[in-house]
């Protein structure tokens, strides 16, 4: 996907959402207006939390795939990450995404004794654990 395609896709998505907001405002259906605005806000917050992760190479790689593929991405992040072993989790993600088919990708990252990375395509998860000390 080239830069123009990326721009046009983003513009199209935003235009669709604004059109929905306009229609619901005209109809006086402010419950749906609030729902759309809340959904946007939640999605932006989830994406911002992802972008702020300490694994910068991983984040850049995911954003590259988000912009250059037809996959729709969402995030559930429960850590800020350590930044260690960035290359390992990036490699795991690239290996995974090159093999999957589908539409919706969910990236979940949780922190407990280890880091748990779940890459989910259309409801089918693949999990990777990364020790806080040793890597994936």
Tell me the span between the first and last alpha carbons: 31 Å
- Chain oligomer state: single chain
Count of helix runs: 4
Number of domains: 2
| Biggest pleated sheet | 4 strands, mixed
How many distinct beta strands?
4
Q: What's the shape? A: globular
Percentage beta strand? 15-25%
Name given to the CATH homologous superfamily of the largest domain: Histidine kinase-like ATPase, C-terminal domain
**Helix-residue proportion:** 40-55%
Q: Which structural class do the helices and strands define?
A: alpha+beta
Strand order of the largest sheet: 1-2-3-4
The CATH C-level class name of the largest domain: Alpha Beta
Low-confidence runs of at least 5 consecutive residues: none
User: How do the SSEs run, as a string of H and E?
Assistant: HHHEHEEE
Protein name: SpoOB alpha-helical domain-containing protein
Pfam family, one: SPOB_a
Organism: Macrococcus hajekii
GO molecular function, one term: phosphorelay sensor kinase activity
Question: Can you characterise this structure?
Answer:
With 136 residues, the chain is an alpha+beta fold. The chain has two domains: 51 residues, no CATH class; 83 residues, Histidine kinase-like ATPase, C-terminal domain (Heat Shock Protein 90, 2-Layer Sandwich). Strands 1-2-3-4 form a four-stranded mixed beta sheet. The chain starts with a helix and ends in a 5-residue tail after the last strand. GO terms for molecular function: phosphorelay sensor kinase activity. This is SpoOB alpha-helical domain-containing protein. Keywords: Kinase, Phosphoprotein, Transferase. InterPro entries: Sig_transdc_His_kin_SpoOB (IPR016120), SPOB_a (IPR039506).
């Amino acid at each position: 996907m080239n830069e123009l395609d990326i721009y046009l896709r983003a513009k199209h998505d935003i235009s669709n959402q604004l059109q929905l907001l306009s229609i619901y405002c005209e109809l006086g259906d402010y419950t749906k207006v609030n729902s759309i605005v809340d959904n946007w806000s939640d999605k932006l917050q989830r994406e911002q939390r992802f972008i702020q992760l300490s694994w910068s190479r991983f984040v850049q790689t995911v954003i590259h795939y988000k912009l250059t593929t037809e996959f729709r991405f969402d995030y559930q992040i429960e850590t800020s990450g350590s930044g260690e072993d960035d290359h390992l989790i990036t490699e795991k993600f690239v290996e995974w995404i090159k093999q999957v088919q589908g539409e919706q990708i969910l990236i979940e990252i949780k922190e407990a004794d280890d880091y748990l990375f779940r890459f989910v395509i259309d409801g089918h998860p693949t999990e990777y654990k990364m020790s806080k000390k040793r890597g994936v």
